[in-house]
Amino acid sequence: MMRSRGYLAFIIGICLTAATCYAVITTQRQQAQATFQRDAEKVARDTEVRLQTYFDMLLGIKGMYALEDRIDRQRFHRFVTELRLERRYPGFQAIQFVRMVPETELAEFAAAVRRDAAIDAGGYPDFHVHPASRRDLHYIIEYTEPLKGNENAFGLDLAALPPHLRALELGRDSGEIVATERITLVQDSSGEPGFVARAPVYRNGPLLQTIEQRRAALVGFVAIVFRVNTLMREVVDAALLDHLHVRIDDGGYPGGKDLLPSSVDTLLYDSAGKVSTNQPRSAPLEGMALQRDLMVGQRRWLMRFEGYGGARYSSSPLPVLLIGVAGFIISALIAALLVSTRRVIDAKHGLEYSLAELERQKSNVEQARSDLSVVAETLKQAQTNLQTSEKMASLGALVAGVAHELNTPIGNSLLTASALSDMVRDFERRLATDGGLKRSVLEAHLADARKACDIMNSSLTRAADLITSFKQVAVDQASGQRRRFQLDDVVHDTLATYAAQLRRAGCEVKLDVPAGLEFDSYPGSLSQVLSNLIGNALLHGFEGRESGAIAIEARREGADLVKLRFSDNGAGMTAGTLHKIFDPFFTTKLGQGGSGLGMNIVYNIVTGVLRGTIRVESEPGIGTTVLLVLPTRAPEGAVQEPLHRPAFQP
């Protein structure tokens, strides 16, 4: 009887195991499909958000024209330069202004562009409208930023290009941003797909309620030129493309506004690197295909997503195998337990032991979590202490340098004073023994005494200047007080405290800081920034070299900004080191005395205390350049001691 129950239990266990395996397979497939759908939705959402951000920036340029519809080339160039496209808006090829020019004004317009010397003193003598055509209205690219790399687009008449003309006329009549179909950019020799988004610009004043009013008031268009491949590289995670295939096709304007001929290739982007729609591609996994429509500048983009085999979307046979083996073993054990009472008792004891072990492991996990909290708090306190130590170490280095520098003038003064004392005693002896002195002896003694006094005066003056510079730098770094100061004074005082170290390193300093650059800011913080940069150049840039050169330049940028450039011709940095230069605790001198907080402190002081910006340029073997743009008047309520760098890295 007991044996029959054991066989029955074994059969039931095998059936339950098979059902569980099937359920796991189904669950894995559903989870893979859910993961695929989340990935596809995220890419579609990120693409939409990125394009909306760029279009908002385009509307911002249009808003500039709304205030004044006659923007000259210099103001347009400066506005676009301040946007810092290469860092904040990757994916742009150019930003342009397209002017509407009637046929009767075409020659006058071309002549005006040729003699436009707002940016280039020589003007643009080679400017010409191309391709040449005769029509009532011309739409000519007048401004393009940056001009370098986009010379072919300068002077391009878009009215002669049907895809561009359709988009221009639709934007003119609707007043909205309009995107072109897939185009090959004239300024891009790679042949990658691209498109242009344009927003119409109207004259100030007239009503814009009807199509006729908008046509009559049109001045031109502001435009952004995109390379789709570059744009999508900023949106899609490269690691995700090993499993997810993304394809974007141009669906034209909704409502039949744009009928795409069958011969036109509509492929805008293919993550597999394909450049045309007729290239073959492999089949996706079952249930791993999705399409989303995205409206981009009144055009419909068809985004297609396909999932392929791999660890992300494929079902793993290992869990099913483990469940099958475990189910078989468990079924066999249950059958054996029903046959043998002794085995039932043993299994009970084993279960109790497993529960006790589980409870113990749970307790260990709780203890480990508590220990990790303590360690995290300790690390935070250690970072604060290291930053304080770094600041005090910088001040200590100033003390050591000044002390070494003072040895020479004070030693010279002491030696001269001793020699003068001997001369006086010899003079007194000769005066006492000879009973009188010749005039020539007296004059020689006076000349020697005067020369000794001049030497002592020069040496002590040098020592006093060093002490004054050190006191100013030390007081500023220790107190962090805000005051008015001249930039050249702070730079000279800081360099004076490092004179000994620079001389020992054979380092030549070239200084080009004009007088009259007055700041209302924190001289101690600025001095600490310069000290850290000098220390980095000596420690890292000139290591193993017998000589080097440091250049410090300052120029006024506008009414309330100063650009300070610190450069050296040292060893330079690799791209990997440059990427992590502002990270706390990152140092190439690990275990050799470097804390890894020097440039982190520099970043925090420049952005948090001085409220400026900092950028570092470097190449191996060429040297390093640090560019600081600082306001001459620090904003009120500046943060005095930022503790860490923000997550965003310039």
Q: What does this molecule look like?
A:
α9 packs antiparallel against α10. By secondary structure, the chain is α+β, with helices and mostly antiparallel strands. It folds into 3 domains: about 260 residues, CHASE domain (Beta-Lactamase); about 80 residues; about 150 residues, 2-Layer Sandwich (Heat Shock Protein 90). Strands 1, 2, 3, 4, 5 and 6 form a 6-stranded antiparallel beta sheet that branches. A 5-stranded mixed beta sheet has the order 12-14-15-17-16. Strands 8-7-10-9 form a 4-stranded antiparallel beta sheet. Helices cover about 50% and strands about 20% of the residues. It contains 15 helices and 17 strands. β16 and β17 form a beta hairpin.
Short synopsis of the structure:
The chain has 15 helices and 17 strands. The protein is of the alpha+beta class and 650 residues long.
Per-chain topology:
Elements: H1 2-67, H2 73-83, H3 85-88, E1 92-102, H4 106-114, E2 137-145, H5 162-174, E3 178-179, E4 183-184, E5 193-202, H6 211-217, E6 218-227, H7 228-233, E7 244-250, E8 267-270, E9 289-296, E10 299-307, H8 317-339, H9 341-434, H10 439-479, E11 483-486, H11 487-497, H12 499-504, E12 507-512, E13 518-521, H13 523-541, E14 548-557, E15 561-568, H14 575-579, H15 598-609, E16 613-619, E17 623-631
Parallel strand pairs: 12-14
Antiparallel strand pairs: 1-2, 1-6, 3-5, 4-5, 5-6, 7-8, 7-10, 9-10, 11-13, 14-15, 15-17, 16-17
